[in-house]
Structure formats: structure tokens, C-alpha cells
Amino acid sequence: MKILLIHGLSRTPLSLSSLESYLQERGATTEQFGYLAFAESFDSIVERLSVHCQAIASSEPYGIVAHSLGGILIRAALANNSIKLPEHIVMLGTPNQPPRLAPLAWKLLPFRWWIRHCGFNLTNPAFFKSLPGLTSPYTIIAGTLGPTGGWSPFGNEVNDGIVAVSETFLSDLDPIIELPVWHTFMMNDLTVKKTVARALGVNQHNKINDDN
Known about the structure:
By secondary structure, the protein is of the alpha/beta class. Helix content is 33%, strand content 14%.
């Protein structure tokens, strides 16, 4: 099974390189999907991702690892019913519900220019209602190291600094895996890497040393 990795908003494939290396060292075959939110519309990125998934699925089974916005992109891409579905999807800190920080970020003009259509969608509850669910098996990993309290925009809700755990749910029945990590760098955490590999059925015993 090939594993396709999809990075988050304002990041690049480099952000997933450590996780990708971890999976490769344990025998997985991987690919990365890159995009630039300031240079492409959400719809054009989704169209490219749809074509990319079709190309992989035409030759072999595949799984998905998606960080943050990457999870939203794959949900939208899989709305194309002609695509063979992935065997499993792992979402890392994906806001499957409208993230409360998005409208605040959208007020910042430099950030608005940088994130463009993708960022605007994150501020729009109607956009989230229009997104399809997932029919492939999936795993949601959420971080818990974000600030809480009276001064935090999250109040007392557990969060990863960018996304609240409650905002990662696709369904009220989702068994969210909560780990003590920050949103931006959660993919570099060893426990996250092990959890991703386990969810995708990667043989972790192919690599003896798991200390880094």
C-alpha cells in the first residue's frame, strides 16, 4: 500500500519529511502532495489532488496521512465518486468543524493574502456543512498542549494551540486519539509517528531503533 502525505496550510512537503522518513524506514512506500494556498484556489488544489489519488489508485491500494488543512482537502477530493477510496485515512489536527481561530486570522491582511481562498473557507460554516464525510476507515489524532484558561481563545477547552479537540470531530462517535503535542509540529513527535504507522498497518519492527 502506498501512503500519500498531504501537508497543512502555509506549510510545504518538507514539514512531513520526518514522518515520511519514519514510514519509509519501516518499509512503507510514500509520496507527497504539495500545494501553495497563495497561488491556487481551494478548488484547483482539490482537483489536482483528485487526479493524483486517481493515478495512485489505478495501480495499487493507498492510504492517506493529512495534516490540518490536508484533511479538509482529501475530504473534498474524495467527493469525486470515480476515485477508488483509500484503505485508511489518518488526520493530524484537522479542523473538521469550523475552527474558532480562523475568523481572527482572516482579519489580518498579510495572513489573508497568504492563505486566500483556502483560509476563507475555514471561516465559513456553510463550507464545512458542504463537505462530504468519509466512508473510508479513518483515525483522528488531536493535540492537547495548547493554552487554556481565561486568557485563551479556547477557554478551558483542550486544544493544540490552533485547533480545539472538539473541532477535530467528524462524528460525535469518533474515538479521537489525544496526544500531548502542538498543532504545527505534531507530525514530528515519536508517539504520533508510531500511532500513524499503527493505523496504516506499517510494520514498525522493520526498524529496531525507535528512540528518535
